[in-house]
Amino acid sequence: MTTLALKIPPPVIALGCAAGMYFLAENTLLYGLGPLWTLPAAIGLALIGIGFDLAGVLAFRRHRTTINPLHPENTRHLVTGGVYRISRNPMYVGMAILLLAWTVYLESPAALLGLVAFIAYITRFQIIPEESLLAQHFGADFEAYRQRVRRWL
Prior knowledge:
It is elongated and about 50 Å long. By secondary structure, it is mostly helical. It has one domain. Helix 1 runs parallel beside helix 3 (90-106). The chain has five helices and no strands.
């Protein structure tokens, strides 16, 4: 495991990416959907992102397992139902969709770089280490789940 693995909370990474996206939007050309579509599209995407986040958190709460991404070793149950049938990482998917909503709101194609950076960072320094720990903890059950459900969508 690298020194960055599981060290920075994913919401902090998302906020950092959002700030970088704002900087990019302020310093590059803008290209939006038009005034009638930008805000509704951003709000619609944000609601979908929040839905993924909440569904993931509620599923973990129902199974009485940790939602702390810095300590996946404390996981007591492998959650595979509900939104976890669609994605192995719905909370990260939700954050990514929120960043996509932010991109639409900013009307900046350059801001997509923040979304790409978020996905790359979270995959490398959060998801891969989590999956390694889950594979050790849940063995064949996690491997079967991993084969059945995609990492993102």
